[in-house]
Design goal:
Strand content: 5-15%
Oligomer: single chain
Helix content: 40-55%
Distance between the termini: 60 Å
Number of helices: 11
Largest sheet: 8 strands, mixed
Radius of gyration: 22 Å
Number of domains: 2
CATH superfamily of the largest domain: Spore Coat Polysaccharide Biosynthesis Protein SpsA, Chain A
Strand order of the largest sheet: 3-2-1-4-7-6-8-5
CATH topology of the largest domain: Spore Coat Polysaccharide Biosynthesis Protein SpsA, Chain A
Length: about 400
């Protein structure tokens, strides 16, 4: 009986981990099948303002603007704004090369992405505002698909799908696999009601619903959709609209994940209604977004409570965890073609992302600007051209 509190804590922590990783996604899929809310999509042509905030985007900007100019959408309905956030490379010059294509350069002093977006919103004249980033190429029909969703009067925000091309190594492949898991959850949330944010490089919002961003906000692609959501609109995902990116190295994914999870803390502060039962997606926010923030602490609780278990359960639990974390630790030295790599690599990715969730709490003690880092991407073998 002396060990019963430790057993209870251990079981509850393990149960929480299994629920967040597997139980909730399965419950979500069941709910989405039981109560689907299909979007009423119809062909539509609306005026669109394309906002492309960029700082020092020289390696990708020319290819990105070509991608925008190749969109299968009437050019006279497009307003294309490149907002250069104090760029010190050739970003501004590249943008002016496309002036004849209708691209307009807005240059501001270095102030951060949120301020750059706000500057673009002030100049936006379209019925729809389309947000995109400098690195990812767009499919030519992507914007047309997004605009079609706005024929449904309940829809305020539409996000496209970010496709991560196959990685050159198992680490990149597993980072891409994690993103597929994320998209699976988002797709089911969209079918049920609303996604809890958008894909930053490919999403659109009704201009009447777009709001100024607080300076320093990390997740414009969550802040804007939540503004529409709390006005009664849906934020949906249209998998037909696609943008493409190469996989990131795990070190870059770690930094990106720290930033995005830290952004969730900010969003809760900006929209405290998210954690109140009056939020119609409360169950999903608590299970998905908040659950992810708490997941690493549940893992630490499992580790600590393992010492309180009776023998031989204690030895089994500790041995399993030591083996698990050892595989993550040695993964970088495991040969790429080794069978062990198939096990160590996904474990390593999982552990790194859990570490990122712990580091994300640093947003409570540091400035948001310190979390912005350059993302390093690598083209897989056999792919040529500029990463966009």
């Amino acid at each position: 009986m002396a060990h019963s509190p430790g057993v209870l804590i251990f079981v509850l922590a393990v149960g929480f981990i299994l629920y967040v990783l597997f139980g909730y996604p399965l419950c979500l899929a069941w709910l989405a099948r039981r109560r689907p809310r299909p979007v009423q999509v119809r062909p539509s042509l609306k005026t669109v303002s394309i906002l492309l905030p960029v700082r020092n985007g020289e390696p990708w900007l020319r290819q990105k603007l070509k991608s925008i100019c190749e969109l299968e959408y009437p050019r006279h309905l497009l307003q294309i704004l490149v907002i250069s956030d104090g760029s010190t490379d050739q970003t501004d010059g590249i943008a002016t090369e496309f002036a004849s294509e209708g691209v307009r350069l807005l240059r501001i002093e270095q102030s951060g992405k949120a301020v750059a977006i706000n500057h673009g919103l002030e100049q936006a004249t379209g019925e729809i505002v389309f947000f995109t980033d400098v690195r990812q190429n767009l499919e030519p029909n992507s914007l047309r698909f997004l605009v079609e969703c706005f024929e449904d009067a309940t829809v305020g925000v539409v996000s496209g799908e970010l496709v991560i091309v196959d990685g050159a190594n198992r680490e990149q492949a597993n980072v891409g696999l994690y993103w597929k898991y994320e998209k699976w959850i988002r797709n089911h949330l969209s079918q049920l009601d609303s996604v809890l944010g958008a894909t930053g490089c490919i999403y659109a919002i009704r201009r009447s619903l777009a709001v100024p961003l607080p300076a320093g906000v990390l997740l414009d692609d969550v802040y804007e959709p939540m503004a529409a959501f709390f006005r009664g609109y849906r934020a949906v995902l249209d998998m037909r609209a696609k943008a493409y990116d190469y996989p990131t190295a795990l070190s870059s994914e770690f930094r990106r994940k720290v930033r995005t999870l830290a952004g969730v803390f900010q969003i809760i502060r900006c929209y405290p209604r998210l954690i109140l039962p009056s939020n119609r997606m409360w169950f999903h926010f608590m299970s998905y977004k908040l659950g992810r923030l708490l997941l690493p602490y549940a893992l630490l609780t499992v580790a600590a409570s393992s010492f309180l278990l009776p023998s031989p359960l204690r030895e089994c639990a500790l041995a399993g965890q030591i083996g698990f974390y050892t595989l993550a630790l040695i993964d970088r030295w495991v040969p790429e073609r080794s069978k062990l790599k198939r096990l160590s690599s996904p474990i390593c990715v999982f552990v790194v992302l859990m570490a990122a969730a712990i580091c994300a709490a640093s947003i409570l003690f540091r400035s948001s600007e310190s979390l912005w880092k350059k993302t390093d991407v690598g083209a897989p073998a056999g792919h040529m051209g500029v990463v966009a």
